[in-house]
Amino acid sequence: MNKLLEENVNLTVLVSIGEHPLSKRPRRAEQDARALEIGLNSPDTNLQVMHAGTANNAQTHTVLKDYLGMGLPEIKVLTVPQETDSLAALTSSFTDSSPDIILAGMRAENGESSGMLPYLLSEKLGMAVVPSITEILSVDKKAGFAELLQALPRGQRRKVSVKLPFVATVDMAAAAPRQSAFGAAMRGKITVVDAIATDTTTTNDAPPQWKTTPAQPRPKRLKIVKAKTAADRFKAATAKAQGGGGKVIYNNQEAAEAILKMLKEEKVL
Amino acid sequence: MSNLFRRDPRAQWIARNRLHPLHVPEGQLAQRGPTGLLRKNVHAIGFVGPNGLKRIDRSGAAGSVNQLTRQSAQGSKSAAQEEIVLPLHKVANPDFYILVVVDGVSGRLSSHDRDTLGLAHKLATQGAHIDNGALIENSLLVENNAAFDKGIEGNEASTGTGVDAGAGAGVSPGVGAGERTGAVVAVFFDTITEEKLDTAGIDRLVNFEGNEYQRYNPEQRCAGLYKLVNQLNPKHILFPDSIHGGADLGRRLAAKLNTTVASNVWKVNGNQIVCRGSAGKTDITRPITNVMLLLEECSEPVSDTRHECKVLEQPLIPPPKQAPDQTLEQAITNTYEQKITDLGNESVNPNDINLAEAGFILSGGNGITDWEQFHQAASILGATEGASRVAVDDGFMPRERQVGATGTWVTAKVYVAVGISGAIQHMQGIAQCEKVIAINTDDSCDMVKRADLSAIGDSQEILAALLALVHKPKNNLERDSKGDQEIEHTAPRDTSGLNTHQTTPKHATEA
Fold first, then answer.
1. Which of A150, B210, B361, B493 is the most buried (most CB within 10 A)?
2. Which residues of A are less than 8 Å from B251 in CB distance?
């Protein structure tokens, strides 16, 4: 399926530490695991998996082992101190290694999870960015193009072609990731690389002003009645919701015509 | 016969009896009484309400003046049903701009877009409302407006300078020009088909038109926006954080502008915003940012004012040659370089689409006798197959196809229920569907009550008639390329029947 010519494509997958929505336990981030699945399914690529964050942390270690269990020989860890923005470290690392494709999830599962990292990275590196892909159809390194499948609302897909070095974020509609195997996880290696340039200028200065609380349920929107008179308010309170005004047709042929007309009006045919 | 004069004793009796509820007095409302005094004819005032009681509406509401006679009272009733013309909110000289880039899917404003515009309107008028007492400058011009009267009365030194319309202007001479009122600038791409544009809260309109905007090209859209932002210098830039493009475009622009950005914002309190972090697990309260990506229902949409929707005049958008710094020029050309090319939508097997997000569902229930025909109909119409619980229990459909409270809650635009009478669990599952079409033998069942269109009769015959109708135009007319494509990819599906239920997407190019 994936057509690759001569030189192998350098594909880098960025993985992060996920968080289970209920138990809050660290886990494989769902979208990152899907990105890795796409990476593993692309034959003849130099796959590199990278994580930027604190190394030598028990939680990080277990999650990275989960990723390794998908059948990876190695994960690179860029050590970035807790408060420092990982963007600078990633940028400097990528300017050295210059991968052709960088895959990442759409947004992190903890922290701010703004989903800005792929965009900032692409801006810094001068690469194109393709959002919410589900599949890499083909990569032609010689011509410098890749064909991707992008997820659209309502389960639709769009095919796009993109110039070669590019960043892509992986949608939840992509193929589910394979299971993590314990043996493979044991065989895999975690290599710690010290981040070359730790720019202190890029640290987030905002967080001291930020206040993080557990998510409150959002209030349901109420139907606001802006009636001027009591009669209007009464009407709004007692009036039945409109409906039941559906058309009923007893003749088969007429019914079929009416159904066809409605389907065409709704533009589903 | 018709020439004969016939007496109507009842009408004559009513005309004589001025206490009769149907009595209509001949003269005016006020008449001379027997003593020569001017007397009000109380029988002519008011209307007969429910229970036959006479009611007089003294609220002063529209139409209450016209309730003098029964005939005119009926007239006032219809007048009350007429649409009320909302007051026009004009911003003559905005001090700042709030830029809103709407999704505008197929040229229409979604409710998400309207919420975003509502928030933008709040942000634009916030300054004027907060410090109303020490109002320095207010270029708000409100015509026949009740809602904004207070704001203008509070402004004591209002003269009416510098505004073209003049009448009723609430503009005071600027003592110290502070930022007070802003204009909401809405950006549309491609053509606008929205009909109720004026009630959405758009003061100024920018429309990027052209063939290049009809396709998916986020880079060009971003470049256009980048140019606009550099010329307008808006205070805030708002995007709906939606899969329809806003989420992507907003992040793209924020990265390009390198400013403060917040995503998943769902509440704005003055200078504080609340956004969802950790993929929805936490709330982060933080200072307001320049670029904001807003969640649905972040604010109430604008509902009580009309807005101008003035197309932003050309002098405000100078050609890029006049841009002062070279870096801007460069940045624009850099952005303009198109790296992504849209190759068009892929045809997706409708049965591969997740039932919860499918747009068109053909659902079968107990009333179906010929399941082969049902599968054929689904593949020809291009519908995703659904089923009721009975059909699943009887083994005609797989469990993951079940629609309802115990199965999948669907959000389809069109839901066709064939032979489903509508158990309450099933009705819950289809509550969010826009249009429901019922095909059933029983015209008193719940599904027919819910449906927008019901066909009563044998489902097999009606489906056969429908399929014949769908096939007919294809056979008669010349096949266009699109029609050919459809036939191509429906042909293999006809034979596959039930076997095509796959969880992972599979595409025509691979097949």
1. B361
2. 114-116, 119
